[in-house]
Amino acid sequence: MDISYWASSARSWTDIVDGCRWAETQGWHGVWVPDHFMPDVGDAASSDAELGPVHEAWTLQAAIAASVPRVRVGAMVAGTTYRHPAVVAKMAATIDHISGGRFVLGLGAGWQLNEHRHYGLDLGSPAERSDRLEEACHVISGLLHEDRTSFDGEYYRLDDAPCEPKPVQERLPLLVAGRGERRTLRTVARFADEWNAWALADEVPGAKAVLRRWCDEIDRDVDDIRITVAAFVHICDTDDEAGPMRDALAHRGGLVGTVDQLRRAVADYASAGVSELVIPDFLVDPDRRDELLGRFQVEVMDA
After folding, report:
1. Among 145, 15, 140, CA closest to 78
2. DSSP assignment of 170-183
3. Which residues, in sequence order, are bridge partners of residue 30?
4. Number of helical H runs and strand E runs in the chain
5. Long-range contacts of 14-23 (CB under 8 A, 24+ apart)
């Protein structure tokens, strides 16, 4: 099983690139960044907390691709409500060239309320966002793999559009994130090479069963889709310490526990078909990041 690093875009550029370089030197598989414009304050009309720093994801991806060797680079995940998919395809192909063929295009439907409100972006209903995500995947797949792409959808229209140069990779991996059974997993089956979700190990088989049904409808082998999971890591000394934290994080706390519990959790993820664990540093003290994530690598993953 691969392990990847998810850097907080609220850190300084120096902290971000140092974390990515540390992960690369430790043999981690990939580095990821979030795609947001400001801190999340829920549905509050306005808050001083929104003034916190957040670096833009596509600029970060290009900079990391040029600054950090070997590892895969991507966003976890780029919201399709923020940018036209033709622009996304061009940026993805360019970063694949910058990285020498290490880019992964991560896409999601978008969700953060305050960003859309303040910037005048149309968020739409969950169903509308999911439909827009599927159209974006259709458009991007065409642009990245065909000489010209025409598309006439509800949200996007392209007329004989080119996209050159094509990516370095013969097939640039498209990762789609989300767990919506009726729409998102259908989009994964139709277009994605990889699927990602925040999920506990025991939640993965049920989602994969839904994904399998969508794959069966188009005669695709579900095992051709790489499954990755995001989870917060926290190593606790006792279960009494781990329990409340695990409960508070819910489906995001799949890797909270004692060392023995985390080893079992990793084994459970592997048994469920997960190929990659994506570890955010959002809750980690930057001064102790290398120590804490290194401990997880050595005492849990390597063991």
Report:
1. 140
2. SS--EEEE---TTT
3. 4, 72
4. 10, 13
5. 15/286, 16/55, 16/60, 16/64, 17/63, 17/64, 17/67, 17/68, 19/281, 19/286, 19/289, 20/64, 20/67, 20/68, 20/71, 21/67, 21/68, 22/289, 22/290, 22/293, 23/71, 23/293
d(CA 217, CA 174): 20
In a 10 Å sphere around its CB, with 0-12 CB exposed, 13-18 middle and 19+ buried, how is residue 22 labelled?
Answer: middle
> In which element (H, E) is residue 93 found?
helix 85-99
Give the tens place of pLDDT for each residue, 276-292: 999 999 989 989 999 99
Q: Give the count of domains, the chain.
A: 1
Nearest-angstrom CA–CA distance, 131 and 187: 9
Query: Whole-model pTM?
Result: 0.96
Q: Which residues contact 284 (CB under 8 A, 6 or more apart)?
A: 292, 293
Question: What CATH number is given to the structural domain containing 128?
Answer: 3.20.20.30
3-state SS, residue 100: coil
303 pLDDT exceeds 90? no
Q: Which residues of 196-223 are buried (b: 16+ CB within 10 A; e: fewer)?
A: bbbbbbebbeebbebbbebbeeeeeebe
Q: Is the pLDDT of residue 44 over 80?
A: no
CA atoms within a 13 Å half-sphere pointing along the CA-CB vector of 166:
12
Angstrom distance (rounded) from CA 77 to CA 137? 13
Neighbours of 252 (CB within 10 A): 18
Structural domain of 282 = 2-301
AA letter at 71: V
**Three-class SS state of 158:** strand
Confidence grade of residue 214 (pLDDT, cut at 50, 70, 90): very high
Per residue in 157-191, pLDDT (tens digit) is 999 999 999 999 999 999 999 988 889 999 999 99
Q: Model confidence at 46, in pLDDT bands (50, 70, 90)?
A: confident
Contact predicate 31/64, CB 8 Å: yes
